[in-house]
Amino acid sequence: MKSETPMQSYLPQDIAFKIISTLEVSDVCSLGSCSQFWRELCLSDSVWKALYRDRWPTLVLANHDSSPNFMDWKEVYARKHAETSLKAAALIDFVEQRLSGDSIEVGNYLKAIEEIHSMMFGFHDVQMFFLKPKLNAVLNLIGLHYCIVFLNVPAKRITETLKNHSLLDKQVCVQWWKLGRWFYGYRLRDEMQSRDISLADLTTAKEREVLGVLQRGVVHEVLRVKITVSKPMCSPWPYQNMPQYE
Questions:
Q1: Where is the F-box domain (predicted)?
Q2: Residue 222 pairs with which residues in a beta bridge?
Q3: Both ends of the chain: CA-CA distance in Å?
Q4: Residues spanned by CATH 1.20.1280.50 within the chain?
């Protein structure tokens, strides 16, 4: 019969649970395969209930944590993860279908963010599905915007996450057209502004103007907003392609 290691024999369960509480889901699953001792601890309901609460805190608050105690929390977590994965895939497909030449109109951009909000995604969900380096930068921006505006994630934590996912230097170009000013009884041409920004820039105060434009979308003083994956040069659209406004 295989004997337990000294660590397994003498490590108190409360200390072991403390160690597990610092791990990500994938690490908990890996640790549970190490031995019978860790398997029993990593399969416990208290561990998976804590993982569920950590990943979907808003969902727990909305339901007032009223789930019965007899639930298999690992199964509950797995079902919710599968459901969340399907929703995220559908939303990514929605955005990709509305991308035209790596650009998206602000109406569709804001609709995607509202969809994430209605799904009650947590910060872990956004990291898992939207903050991937292989995704289009517009999808990265949608996830980042949601974290800043709806989840109120601290800038330091977001910057650290962008660094861990190699997204700090990924750039987008935001263009917006403002209604021309009146000058001596004549309305001047509509004004176009263009800004190349990195995802890291949006976590700082210096780019709050751009974040404000994205958040407001098209309002009475802003005629159009377009978000594009940055190229070496961020060239504006020809003015003659702009819709006419009276």
A1: 5-51
A2: 178
A3: 86
A4: 6-75
Per DSSP, what are the bridge partners of residue 51? none
- Residue whose entry in the numeric block shows the structure tokens 């996450």: 161
Topology (CATH) of 6-75:
Monooxygenase (1.20.1280)
Q: DSSP secondary structure string, the chain?
A: -PPPPHHHHH--HHHHHHHHTTS-HHHHHHHHTS-HHHHHHHTSHHHHHHHHHHH-HHHHHHTTT---TTS-HHHHHHHHHHHHHHHHHHHHHHHHHH-SSSEEEHHHHHHHHHHHHHTT--HHHHHHHT--TTS-HHHHHHHHHHHHHTS---HHHHHHHHHHTT-TT-EEEEEEEEPPPEETTEEPPPEEEEEEEETTGGGSGGGHHHHHHHHH-S-TTEEEEEEEE--SS-PPPPGGGSPP--
Per-position pLDDT tens, the chain of length 246: 444 555 455 578 888 888 888 888 888 888 888 888 888 888 899 899 889 988 888 776 555 555 555 568 999 999 999 999 999 999 999 999 999 888 999 999 999 999 999 999 999 999 999 999 999 999 999 999 999 999 999 999 999 999 999 999 999 999 988 876 666 767 667 788 888 999 999 888 777 788 888 988 887 667 788 899 976 444 444 433 444 333
CA-to-CA distance for 48 and 68, rounded, in angstroms? 14
Question: What pTM, to 2 d.p., does this model score?
Answer: 0.78
101 token code pair: 């030449």
